[in-house]
Amino acid sequence: MKRLILSSLVALSASVVVSAAHADSFPEKPITMTVAYSPGGGNDTVARLMAKHIEPYLGVRMVVENTPGAGGQIGFTRLAKSKPDGYTIGLLSSPSVFMIELMRKGVEYTLDDFQPIANIQSDPIILAVNEKSDITDFASFINKVKEQPGKLNVGGDGPQSNVHLQAAALEDALGVDVNFISYSGSGPASTGLLGNEVQAALLTASSALQLVESGRIRPLAIFSKASHPSYPNTPTATEAAGKTVPGVGTAIRGVAAPKGLAPERIAKLQDAFQQLLADPEFQAASEKMGVVLTYMGAEEFEKELQASRTEAKQYIDLMK
Predict the structure, then answer these.
(1) Alpha-carbon distance 156 to 4, whole Å?
(2) How far apart are CA 15 and CA 64, in angstroms?
(3) Quick check: is 6 in a domain?
(4) How many CA atoms within 13 Å lie on the side-chain side of 292?
(5) How does pLDDT run across 135-166, given as a tens digit for each residue?
(6) Which of 3, 47, 86, 123 has its CA 20 to 30 A from that of 169?
(7) Residues 251, 47: contact at Cβ < 8 Å?
(8) pLDDT by residue (tens digit) across 31-46?
(9) What one-character-per-residue DSSP string does 12-41 give?
(10) How many domains does the chain have?
(11) What residue range is the signal peptide (predicted)?
(12) CATH number at residue 41
C-alpha cells in the first residue's frame, strides 16, 4: 500500500511538472489575430503593423486573418466562440463590439464573452471629402447638409458601427440630417469617396492618413478632444463648429481572447504587447502610419470597455 501511494505521488508530481512546463512553453505555434473588418481599414492597419513587429516578443509569428461581415458581428462572434487557448486572439474595436450586441437581436456574444489582454490604439474619426469637392471646410459641409436635409451622402464603416455612432452624435449635436451610407470598412468607404459614390466620408484617422498625405482626400475636421499629431492643421469638430461635438466614435482598439483563457497565458500575451508598444522601431512605424498608441493592461482595458459601453448607450436610439 505504501509503495502504491508513493508511486501515485510520484506520478502526480511528474504530471504537475509536465503541466507547468507546458504552460511555460506557450506559445509553441503561430497565433492567429482575427480582424472583424475588411483589409485596408483602421483595424486591419494596426493588426498588420503589430504582426510585423511582435514576433521577437511572442517568440512565434502572429498571422492576421480578416473575417469581415455584418459590421464586425461575424468576426467578433468567431472570436468569442474560439477555443480559449491563446492561439486565437482578436482585435476588439470599441464601441463597435458592444454596439452590435446592444442594437441587434440574436447576437451570439456579449462583451462578457471576451477576455481583454491589452489596449493598443486610440483612433478618432475624421470627416473628409474628395480633393476635387467644392466643399472646402467644415462650415461649408454643414451649410450644404442644411440645404439638402437627409440627402447629402456620407459614407462610413457600418451599419451600427463606431463610425455610424459618430454620425449620429454629429447630427444630434448640430441638428443636421445626413444620409449615412454603410460600407464594410474604412477601406471600402475610402474607395467610395474616391469614386464619388458619396459626397463625404467619416473615416478612421489612421486609415485615411495616406490618402490625405497623397492629396487625394481633404480632411475637414477630426472628432477628438484635442488636435491629432498626424493632423496638426485639421481642426477638431468642436473647434470648427463652435460648439461641443462629442468624439464618441473614437475607436479604442485592443487585443482580446475568448473568455476562459488561463491567467498565465493572459499574462504572457499582455507582456508581449506591452514590450511591443515600448519598441522604438514599432513606435516609429506607428507614428508614420498615423497610429496613436495608447497602452492599457488587461484590467484597465476592461474598465475602459465598460465605460465606453455606458457612454454609447445614450445614442443607440438615434441609430435605429
Answers:
(1) 69
(2) 35
(3) no
(4) 17
(5) 999 999 999 999 999 999 999 988 878 899 99
(6) 47
(7) no
(8) 999 999 989 888 898 9
(9) HHHHHHHHHHHHHT---SPEEEEESS-TTS
(10) 2
(11) 1-23
(12) 3.40.190.150
